[in-house]
């Protein structure tokens, strides 16, 4: 298991409070050192703010883009791996996100397209679909969509990006890379019931250790500890693959019958741990961030409809899903709407991060050239 991210959140009322980002970045360095001292590998440190519409509300679109570039330079200067400026609230401001993405490299952001209280925002979904298309056209191999998503019913405090944003008192949260824990638990299980017991035991043991370090950091720094996102989150090695871990339980291949049941088991365990949790705290199935998921996508053992089905019992929606470069805005919009409708019906946080592959058709291999992703066949979304 690794620490995927230490994410510190700050709330800004105006750009005059930009020093809060600097303070968060400096805190992250201290927290990273504390975890490394205990033997943990810390892959990234991140800073998240509240919605950028809150603290840049009086600026024109072009001024917003320039200010975000300045914020990015601050983050780079302080060794922040990724910096999330929160979400766009309105269709008009969602339209600005592609311009922001085009001129930045560590800035993440999202478009909110609905919640339980207000229902689905159809115009926001339409605007988000357009942004996905524009980012694919404007960035190398469409890779900019790695830093953008449409989200529904997502609350503050998710340490993972691009969905994560923050509200309230400054706080830090922990996101994990922990597919190896599922592999460990499932490899010694002979039934679904035993798998559930073993998964709970392994996660309780390992996450309590992480929490002890985090609580000590809180006591020494005075920065509030907001919890661990206990989500089962894969790495890029075979022993860290969620798909390959599932297959240890004898279901055949990921996507075969039984996949939904295992997903429900995983989520049940992760949402009932004794440690302080935050964010999704469910199951992540990022297609291009898991060698097993990518391999099974190549074999077509599952599709986008399957992923939506699994999202009904887990999270976090459709994540790093490669689709054809010529996919229409209308199809992207409907995919976002389907996910948002599911999130609102089930009152759970879901997001949509689609990776359009320019010039690629369904069945062809991606070439994102990213250290954070593996290539796989483009999925059919029509």
Task: Explain what the structure shows.
It is a single chain. The protein has 382 residues and is an alpha/beta fold. The chain has one domain: Anaerobic Ribonucleotide-triphosphate Reductase Large Chain (Alpha-Beta Barrel). It is 41% helix and 18% strand. It contains 13 helices and 11 strands. It has helices spanning 19-37, 52-55, 61-77, 91-94, 97-102, 122-138, 179-187, 192-221, 242-247, 259-270, 291-298, 304-311, 329-346, and strands at residues 2-10, 42-49, 82-88, 107-112, 114-115, 119-120, 148-152, 171-177, 224-229, 317-324, 350-357. A 9-stranded mixed β-sheet has the order 9-8-1-2-3-4-7-11-10. A two-stranded antiparallel sheet has the order 5-6. Helix 1 packs across helix 8, helix 7 packs antiparallel against helix 8 and helix 8 (192-221) runs parallel beside helix 10 (259-270). The protein is globular.
């Amino acid at each position: 298991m690794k620490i995927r991210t230490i994410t510190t959140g700050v709330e800004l009322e105006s750009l005059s409070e930009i020093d809060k980002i600097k303070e968060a970045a400096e805190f992250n360095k201290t927290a990273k050192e504390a975890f490394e001292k205990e033997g943990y590998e810390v892959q990234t440190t991140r800073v998240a703010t509240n919605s950028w519409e809150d603290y840049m509300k009086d600026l024109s679109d072009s001024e917003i883009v320039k200010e975000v570039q300045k914020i990015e330079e601050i983050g780079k200067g302080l060794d922040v791996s990724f910096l999330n400026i929160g979400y766009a609230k309105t269709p008009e401001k969602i339209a600005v996100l592609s311009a922001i993405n085009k001129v930045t490299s560590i800035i993440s952001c999202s478009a909110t397209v609905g919640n339980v209280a207000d229902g689905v925002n159809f115009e926001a979904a339409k605007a988000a679909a357009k942004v996905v298309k524009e980012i694919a056209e404007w960035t190398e191999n469409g890779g900019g969509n790695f830093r953008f998503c449409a989200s529904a019913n997502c609350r503050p405090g998710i340490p993972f990006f691009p969905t994560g944003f923050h509200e309230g008192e400054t706080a830090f949260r922990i996101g994990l890379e922990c597919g190896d824990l599922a592999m460990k638990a499932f490899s010694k299980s002979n039934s679904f019931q035993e798998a559930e017991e073993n998964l709970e035991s392994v996660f309780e043991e390992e996450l309590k250790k992480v929490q002890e370090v985090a609580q000590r950091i809180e006591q020494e720094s005075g920065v509030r500890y907001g919890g661990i996102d206990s989500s089962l989150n894969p790495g890029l090695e075979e022993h860290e693959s969620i798909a390959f871990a599932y297959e240890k339980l004898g279901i055949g291949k990921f996507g075969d019958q039984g996949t939904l049941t295992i997903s429900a088991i995983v989520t049940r365990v992760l949402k009932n741990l004794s440690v302080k949790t935050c964010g999704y705290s469910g199951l992540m199935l990022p297609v291009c961030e898991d060698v097993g998921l990518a391999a099974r996508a190549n074999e077509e053992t599952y599709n986008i409809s399957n992923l939506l089905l699994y999202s009904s019992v887990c999270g976090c929606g459709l994540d790093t899903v490669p689709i054809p470069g010529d996919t229409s805005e209308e199809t992207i919009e409907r995919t976002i709407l389907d996910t948002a409708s599911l999130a609102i019906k089930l009152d759970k946080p879901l997001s949509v991060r689609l990776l359009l592959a320019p010039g690629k058709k369904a069945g062809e291999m991606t070439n994102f050239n990213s250290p954070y992703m593996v290539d796989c066949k483009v999925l059919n979304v029509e």
